[in-house]
Amino acid sequence: MASLTSLGDEALIALDTVSERATSFFYPNVRLGVTGLSRAGKSVFISALVHNLIHGGRMPLFEPAHNNRISKAYLEPQPDDGVPRFAYEKHIEDLIKNQIWPESTRAVSQLRLTIEYETASGWGRFFSRNKLHLDIVDYPGEWLLDLPLLRKDFATFSRESIARAKSEKRTEIASEFLDLADKLESNAEADETAVRELSDSFKTYLANCRKDELALSTLPPGRFLMPGDMEGSPALTFAPLTNVTDHAEPGSIQAMMERRYEAYKTLVVKPFFREHITRLDHQIVLIDAMQAINAGPDAVADLERALVEIMSCFRPGAGNLLTSLWQRRIDKILVAATKADHLHHESHDRLEAVVDRLVKNVTVSAGFANASIETVAMAAVRATKEATIDDGGEKLPVVVGIPAKGERIGDEIFDGIRQTAVFPGDLPDDPEALFRMESMPQQRFVRFKPPKVERTAEGITLSLPHIRLDKALQFLLGDRLQ
Ligand SMILES: Nc1nc2c(ncn2[C@@H]2O[C@H](COP(=O)(O)OP(=O)(O)OP(=O)(O)O)[C@@H](O)[C@H]2O)c(=O)[nH]1
Ligand SMILES: [Mg+2]
After folding, report:
1. Which residues, 6+ apart, have CB-to-CB distance to 34 below 8 Å?
2. Which tens digit of pLDDT belongs to each residue from 86-137?
3. Which ligand is closest to the CA of 140, given by its number?
4. In terms of CB atoms within 10 Å, which end of the chain has fewer, N or C?
5. Is the pLDDT of residue 309 over 70?
6. What's the whole-model pTM score?
């Protein structure tokens, strides 16, 4: 079986990790990885975090901010010249000026925020100033799901992917792809058009799995959904075969697929882990638990599976392909359910219990002794306010906001203008219920427009409102700003 632990592969990955730049010569830097599956809320989280730090947002649970020890936070050029810069200014303009959510981002990006602060020891006693460079790396969680591929050859990848496509929830959505795959003889002569056709059909099937009704999460290869800058290249143009054999005939369809699959691993997967993942200090994994809950138990179970796979990339120890390559060690991981503003605060603890339940398997499967894992239910940007309405004598806790255009509850389709009170329903007391079909609660989560950000009498834009963003920051950065 192909294995990354062979010297060649490991040396290949290690090659560049020894050359970490001396960026932290004068001041320490922290590399914070921000990940999550597409639409989980990565871009909104980073924008809100930076905006709140630069503009001195209200963050009582973030000790350095609460104690006024942060003197200044500002953006500086990032250390990695070859990585796209996170489009902070554009995202903030969208959120605050245009009141729309930022556009989907498709690749890795980076932003450096420098924080000047008074040290905790100096604070209140004698003046002592320090500086921290926070390097934030935004990358798609889908790409992490590729790590297990490094251990698999093409035949194994094919068999597993086809079995998944034939599973109960997916078979209907996969039928077009499966039909096409059945027609393709793996030992037939290699044919670019046929290979591309099957690959396109496979990608369409994967994309359909992500849609709201199914909201499935485990869909490797990650670049097929989030191609980044290699879209259209042969390394991204292959597909699993239904009638795969253990030995491909030279010049056959299978041989062509195999070669491309191996190129995918060498050109895409390994460099990604080497250049980005093995250099992180802290990691936040964002999940859209609400989308999964809305879609039902299969989506919740699938999200759990994806989370286990994502987290296992960061797991230290012998079972991890990356262990010997870590240049730094991830010592903190925060798993955060975003968009808690869709719920009344009475349900926030229950949402946190759902996240706890989702990560339980990861912690149980040992090895995380060195990294502390924390969970939080938060909203990086709070788009709603809370209220109580009287429903025939019964008091209902509701959230009030402007549902985005086209969102619907039952027969009602929203116009994107009208403010509406939504009763989101209660999350169950026991998160286990979300994994069982019969006890699914009726949930109503709609997407809201971003909030109108207030201005002071002097015309200064206040920072973006949030829920527990400060708690997340305290966990991730509190001890680095002592
Ligand atoms: N109400 C609310 N909605 C949010 C919040 N964060 C994200 N969203 C919603 O989730 C969508 C996706 O957020 P993004 O930050 O763009 O997600 P992403 O993970 O960067 O997505 P990709 O770039 O596509 O991978 C947004 O368009 C919003 O509709 C939040 O804090 N509150
Ligand atoms: Mg994004």
Report:
1. 42, 45, 46, 136, 137, 138, 139, 283, 284, 286
2. 999 999 999 999 999 999 988 899 999 999 999 877 555 555 689 999 999 9
3. 1
4. N
5. yes
6. 0.88
C-alpha 339 to ligand 1 mean position (Å): 8
Could you tell me the strand order of the sheet in which 420-422 lies? 385-391, 394-401, 420-422
Q: To test ligand 1's pocket by mutation, which of 101, 310, 467 has the most ligand atoms within 8 angstroms of CB?
A: 101
The helix or strand, by DSSP H or E, that contains position 209, with its residue range, turns out to be helix 192-210
Following DSSP, what letter does each residue of 105-154 receive, concatenated? --S-EEEEEEEEEE-TTTTTTS--EEEEEEEEEE--HHHHTTGGGGG--H
Which atom of ligand 1 is nearest the CA belonging to 338? 31
Question: What is the chain's mean pLDDT, rounded?
Answer: 86
Q: Are 454 and 462 in contact (CB under 8 A)?
A: yes
How many A from CA of 124 to the centre of ligand 1? 39
Beta strand pairing status for 408-409 and 109-118?
unpaired
C-alpha span between 199 and 206 (Å, rounded): 11
Q: How far is the CA of 80 from the centre of ligand 2 (A)?
A: 19
- What is the separation of C-alpha 176 from the centre of its chain, rounded to a whole number of angstroms? 29
Token pair recorded at residue 246: 């253990």
